[in-house]
Backbone:
């Protein structure tokens, strides 16, 4: 970087080295720390780039003593070598210091609500309210700069692969599918509303219909959802991309090249090599209890239902009669855990899932445990054979409907992986989840509905829609997962109106609703639409993973609180009655809100 010299600075606070000793320089920045050594004041002066130690004595020291930390100052001084015993090897500028000859206060700071130089464990709401101060902290500051570099690398990779960057509308129409929209009232069209895009889905498909071949965008997406641990409330960013005349394999190739190029630039962790492993959705649920499996944990679930087909154990027998399954998780161990470990695990499982958990301990060929007395020798031997038990092992077993017991056993797999230190360290383990069901049954209404993206192409096309039971139809949909986190979701698109009408009719949408809600895209498909496919990796999740942070708010410059409030800017907020009249809106608040208003 070339420093832009001004009256405020000739160098940044990260540039000076011992080679500049004897030079007179101007520096500007924030007072990070002050240390008074008997009439000689040492100041750590900080800017965006780093820290330089500044020394002041005499009247200048007395004056600077009165200035609070985090005030902004400009100093002029001479660069000098530090004494050997004073060298700070932790700082790039640690071999020099600047002895001040003059200074100027550019902006004074009030008393701080929390410390910047040191972590004083200030509550998160306070840190979000004063986010501009929190962003001055070294780790958070560096993470936001890292985010910028990662996005730049992503853009470079996309351009190098022949993609073109586009911008799509922010004000658009509401969609009947997906999450709840954020609505924007129209002043010029009373009673009508725009919606902020949940994703640029329809527009990127329209770009393909328009004859553009490879699109990408770092897109802002908006969803009026309740708080989630894996998504910032309200808004998030994704790398949105689409390609014409491709199948899902080509989408995989692009993503694999992107991730294997970008990740090694910012981490020295081991990375999966391309092509990434592919796992069918049903297999992911059966073997990992999740469509976001953490493959750093090698242990898998096993379906042992057949072993208990004629069991006398009433709990298992009852679940099998209700078409449930018995899922098992075997863990080879070096020493036997305490009874408390088993009691705590069973209680955790019950609290987390509402399900019961059984276990067997295999040692020296013998089995004991919570249900051993209910099992016959043949069932014990069959478990040993199917699970390949040879040494000291624990087998946990859960029984129930697939949709409830498999996710619960998947959570247990992750918990035990962490407890037994069985998560492969310093590794990014990628995989593709493929062959998602096109439809599912609504548990409340028992009606058929879309299980994923309604614009996806069903595997088998029209023939599958006309001849198969809806719950047997798979879609060309796919997720990219890394370390148990869904980084990306995409699909081969349905580009044919006849297939689209048929798919939506199965989900309960008549043609007139499809025409009303998706008229623009459906109309476009009538004038020659290429086969196309796309995907949308989440920027916030990628940065969090590379920054090795545990919270998305630590990788976003100005995040909302979990309450979906912007504590810094005070949003959402009330507006003036005049604005409401202009928008033809009258408020009808819940009674408790009326009292607060």
Residues:
């Amino acid at each position: 970087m070339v420093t832009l010299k001004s009256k405020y600075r000739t160098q940044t606070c990260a540039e000076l080295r011992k080679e500049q000793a004897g030079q007179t320089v101007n520096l500007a920045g924030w007072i990070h720390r002050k240390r008074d050594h008997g009439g000689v004041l040492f100041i750590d002066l900080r800017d965006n780039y780093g820290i330089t130690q500044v020394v002041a004595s005499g009247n200048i020291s007395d004056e600077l003593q009165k200035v609070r930390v985090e005030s902004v100052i400009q100093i002029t001084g001479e660069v000098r070598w530090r004494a050997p015993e004073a060298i700070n090897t932790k700082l790039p500028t640690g071999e020099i210091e600047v002895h001040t000859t003059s200074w100027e206060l550019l902006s004074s700071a009030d008393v701080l609500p929390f410390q910047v130089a040191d972590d004083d464990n200030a509550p998160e709401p306070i840190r979000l309210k004063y986010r501009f101060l929190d962003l001055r902290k070294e780790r958070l500051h560096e993470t936001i700069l890292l985010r910028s570099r990662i996005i730049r690398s992503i853009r470079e990779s996309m351009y190098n692969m022949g993609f073109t960057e586009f911008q799509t509308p922010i004000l658009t129409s509401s969609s009947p599918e997906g999450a709840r929209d954020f609505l924007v009232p129209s002043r010029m069209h009373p009673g009508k509303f725009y919606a902020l895009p949940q994703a640029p889905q329809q527009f990127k498909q329209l770009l393909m219909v328009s004859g553009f071949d490879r699109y990408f965008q770092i897109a802002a997406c908006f969803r009026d959802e309740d708080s989630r641990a894996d998504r910032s409330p309200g808004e998030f960013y994704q790398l949105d991309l689409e390609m014409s005349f491709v199948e899902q394999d080509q989408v995989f190739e692009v993503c694999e090249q992107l991730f294997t190029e970008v990740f090694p630039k910012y981490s020295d962790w081991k990375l999966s090599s391309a092509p990434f492993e592919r796992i069918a959705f049903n297999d992911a649920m059966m073997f990992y209890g999740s469509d976001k499996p953490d493959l750093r944990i090698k242990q898998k679930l096993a379906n042992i239902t057949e072993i208990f087909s004629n069991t006398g154990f009433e709990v298992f027998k009852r679940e099998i009669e209700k078409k449930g399954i018995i899922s098992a998780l075997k863990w080879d161990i070096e020493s036997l855990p305490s009874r408390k470990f088993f009691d705590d695990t069973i209680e955790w499982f019950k609290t987390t899932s509402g399900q019961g958990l059984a276990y067997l301990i295999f040692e020296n060929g013998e089995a004991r445990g919570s249900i051993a007395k209910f099992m016959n020798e043949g069932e014990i031997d069959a478990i040993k054979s199917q699970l390949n038990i040879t040494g000291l092992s624990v087998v946990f077993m859960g029984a129930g409907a697939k949709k409830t017991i498999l996710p619960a056993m998947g959570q247990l797999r992750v918990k035990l992986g962490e407890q037994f230190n069985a998560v492969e360290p310093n590794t990014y383990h990628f995989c593709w989840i493929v062959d998602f069901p096109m439809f599912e049954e609504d548990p409340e209404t028992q009606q058929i509905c879309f299980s994923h993206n309604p614009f996806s192409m069903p595997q088998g096309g029209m023939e599958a829609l006309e001849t198969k039971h809806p719950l047997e139809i798979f879609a060309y949909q796919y997720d990219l997962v890394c370390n148990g986190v869904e980084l990306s979701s995409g699909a081969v698109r349905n580009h044919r109106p006849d297939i689209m009408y048929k798919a939506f009719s199965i989900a309960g949408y008549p043609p007139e609703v499809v025409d009303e809600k998706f008229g623009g895209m459906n109309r476009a498909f009538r004038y020659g639409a290429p086969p196309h496919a796309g995907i949308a990796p989440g920027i916030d999740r990628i940065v969090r993973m590379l920054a090795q942070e545990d919270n998305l708010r630590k990788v976003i410059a100005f995040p909302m609180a979990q309450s979906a409030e912007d504590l810094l800017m005070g949003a959402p907020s009330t507006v003036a009655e005049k604005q409401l009249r202009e928008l033809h809106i009258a408020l009808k608040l819940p009674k408790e809100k009326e009292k607060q208003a």
Notes: The chain has a mean pLDDT of 94. The radius of gyration is 30 Å. The first strand starts at residue 24 and ends at 36. The chain is about 30% helix and 25% strand.
